[in-house]
Each structure stands twice: as C-alpha cells, then as structure tokens.
Automatic annotation (TrEMBL):
This is Lipoprotein. GO terms for biological process: Gram-negative-bacterium-type cell outer membrane assembly. Pfam families: LptE. One of its GO terms (cellular component) is outer membrane. It comes from Candidatus Jettenia caeni.
Length: 192
C-alpha cells in the first residue's frame, strides 16, 4: 500500500515524496507496533463486567404461571398475554414452566390497562394508523420462602397497526403481548 501511494505520487502528480519509501515503511512498522500494544491493553477492558452466566437467580429453577388477571374491558387478552409470557420465558431463560405443586416460584400478573390511540386519520375521519398499548403489573414470588423476588407495577408495551395493510387491533395486540412479555423476562433478571 505504501509503495502504491509512492508510485502514484511519483508518476501521476509529478512531485517527489519528502522521504524515501523505506523511511515510510519503518515508521509504519513502529505505528503498527504501537497500535498492537494499545489494542493489547484496550480490548480486555471492553469485556469488564461481562458474564456468560444466566441473569436469573440461581436458586430458582422452575416457575408456575397462572392465567393473568384482567382489570380491563377487553376479554380474552389475559389468555393471549399469559401464553406470550410463557413462550418468552421458555425461549429466553433456563427456567422450566411446571405445575403449581412442583414449582420453586410463581409469577402472578394483572393486565391493568389497554389503550387504543388513533395516530393518523384521513380527510374523512377514517382511521389510517392506530396504536394499542398494553399495561400490566407482575409479582414473582419464591414459593418456598414466600419472599417477593420481583415486583413491577408499570410495564407497558405499544404496537402500531395500519388499517390499509389489513392490520387489525388483534394483530397489533399480539405484537404488544410479545413486547410486554420480553419486558417481563427482563424484569425477572437480576440487576447488574
């Protein structure tokens, strides 16, 4: 690369380099050693605090998840939300979902609100784009000791839908269920 730049400057621009190519190569070797030495010290610092262990409490290996309560007028949402949370726990954690009698812990939850907001209307007041937001609270209890492991009151997740794409409140709600289920799993993980 250095020789190529030397060639281009000598042949195409018709003015010589102020130093010879060997000097350039030697200074590049020095700077390469400096960069390598710098990286040797900087790269290990980037991994500080990283751990490959699970972020869940090590003494809890199983969870029972009853159907969540629903304090809203939208009936049936509690079943879909509970299923989404179970799926996310199975996908993203080492926890086993078991029956109530076999569980180390129980995850209780309640849908506290479901909001639907119109984002865009056309000139005839038809809905073009809308948003549904699911709100819930959870309480994760160690069944053996009765101690509350995690309690969160304000977990919300929105999802938008566009009517002209044949998206519906149901499809947006399902997306919001997955998003709020991810938030539940994140809440169950230990703080760093």
């Amino acid at each position: 690369m250095i020789m190529v730049s030397y060639f281009f400057t000598q042949k195409f621009f018709m003015f010589p380099l102020p130093v010879k190519p060997n000097v350039i190569l030697n200074s590049c070797k020095i700077s390469m050693y400096s960069i390598a030495l710098l990286l040797l010290f900087v790269i290990p610092m980037g991994g500080c605090g990283y751990s490959s262990k699970s972020l869940l409490r090590s003494n809890v290996r199983s969870v029972y998840i009853p159907i969540f309560d629903n304090d809203t007028f939208r009936r049936g949402f509690e079943f879909d939300l509970t299923k989404a949370i179970r799926d996310q726990i199975l996908m993203r954690t080492p926890l086993n979902i078991v029956n109530k009698d076999e569980a180390d812990s129980v995850l209780f939850g309640k849908i506290t609100n479901v909001y639907e907001n119109v984002l865009i209307e056309d000139t005839r007041d038809n809905i073009v784009e809308s948003r549904v937001t699911i709100g819930l609270e959870i309480r994760w209890v160690d069944k053996r000791t009765g101690r509350v492991i995690v309690e969160r009151k304000n977990i919300h997740a929105p999802a938008e839908f566009i009517v002209r794409r044949n998206e519906t409140l149901t499809s947006a709600s399902n997306e919001a269920f997955v998003r709020v289920a991810r938030s539940v799993v994140e809440a169950m993980q230990e703080d760093w």
